[in-house]
Recover the amino acids of this structure.
């Protein structure tokens, strides 16, 4: 069985690593000659819309998936006419446009921040009395890890923020004063079976996820499950889906969803009965889903920009290091470490030290 993956970054790498024990083979389409998943399968190097490479991918892959949501939706649509593609091109198209995504949430009764589309500085100036300050101006497409975003603290910020976007269609959202940022990861297979992982509590800085901690028996679990189930059913979704949320006064407010395996679920590799990566493969192949139960207390720390010294990370008890085979670069996710233990107190003590080590090499 051959799985095709659009993209060959660290998420594709971890999908392939999860698939090898299951006897799966992989073929990647990625423009980069040194994409970090390349050693784990056949690499088709070129643009995602290269017709010859897409034909080759469709011919050889029994099913195609993708590792990030900026793959052109029409590429996924084309491939779906020649082979199985999961998640669906519709899920990709919704996730790629923040306005369509927010409208989709609204139509499903999932709360969101107050938002409005803007296509000119004049429209932005006109709408801000309804949105209020502070607010966030975001490009509708091509945004990730804080890119394409500006915080608006007053009317004096509007001109410069609009200039940064260089006139692309945008959306402005009211700033949410949240108590926590959380995410839920769920998985649904072709036959419709669904499973949910425990909530992750997340910490960002500079728009980039720095740390995630699994929260078993979190009081917001049921509400998060209800919201993500609505998404999966409305999209007839297949694969792993991540929904990012803010908690405000006992209510969850949707920020965005990712139609793929997700950074906040990396702790599942060592901290759950079945990792998000293995379950994604099980789902798109319509195999029985594995248990999503946590096997103790778990957390994940990202290494951004700079690589840690392997021996220093492995000196911590109950820590597992995952290097992505990526050259250090400012703002780049180059590795993560997961911490898994049965002792909650030990987790917090080690997590604090591990996060401090990540800060030492941070070049974001």
């Amino acid at each position: 069985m051959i799985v095709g993956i659009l993209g060959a970054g660290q998420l594709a790498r971890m999908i392939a690593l999860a698939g090898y024990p299951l006897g799966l083979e992989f073929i990647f389409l990625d423009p980069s000659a040194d994409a970090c998943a390349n050693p784990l399968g056949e690499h088709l190097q070129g643009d995602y819309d290269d017709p010859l490479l897409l034909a080759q991918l469709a011919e050889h892959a029994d099913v195609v998936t993708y590792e990030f949501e900026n793959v052109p939706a029409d590429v996924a649509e084309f491939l779906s006419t020649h082979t199985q593609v999961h998640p669906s091109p519709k899920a990709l198209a919704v996730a790629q446009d923040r306005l369509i995504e927010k409208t989709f949430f609204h139509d499903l009764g999932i709360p969101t921040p107050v938002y409005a589309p803007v296509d000119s500085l004049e429209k932005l100036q006109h709408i801000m009395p309804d949105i209020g300050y502070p607010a966030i101006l975001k490009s509708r497409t091509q945004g990730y890890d804080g890119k394409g975003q500006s915080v608006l603290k007053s009317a004096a910020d509007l001109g410069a923020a609009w200039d940064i976007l260089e006139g692309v269609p945008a959306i402005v959202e009211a700033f949410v004063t949240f108590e926590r940022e959380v995410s839920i990861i769920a998985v649904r297979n072709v036959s419709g079976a669904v499973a949910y992982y425990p909530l992750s509590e997340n910490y960002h800085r500079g728009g980039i996820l720095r740390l995630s901690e699994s929260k078993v028996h979190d009081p917001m679990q049921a509400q998060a499950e209800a919201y993500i189930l609505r998404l999966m059913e409305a999209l007839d979704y297949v694969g792993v889906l991540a929904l990012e949320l803010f908690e405000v006064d006992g209510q969850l407010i949707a920020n965005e969803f990712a139609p793929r395996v997700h950074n906040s679920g990396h702790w599942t590799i060592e901290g759950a009965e079945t990792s998000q990566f293995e379950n994604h493969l099980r789902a798109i192949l319509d195999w029985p889903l594995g248990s999503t139960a946590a096997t103790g207390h778990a957390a994940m720390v990202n290494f951004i920009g700079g690589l840690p010294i392997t021996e220093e990370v492995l000196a911590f008890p109950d820590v597992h290091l995952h290097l992505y085979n990526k050259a250090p670069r400012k703002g780049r996710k180059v590795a993560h470490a997961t911490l898994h233990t049965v002792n909650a107190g030990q987790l917090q003590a080690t997590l604090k030290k591990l996060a401090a080590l990540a800060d030492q090499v941070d070049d974001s």
In short: Residues 114-174 form a domain with the Dna Ligase; domain 1 fold (CATH 3.30.1490.20).
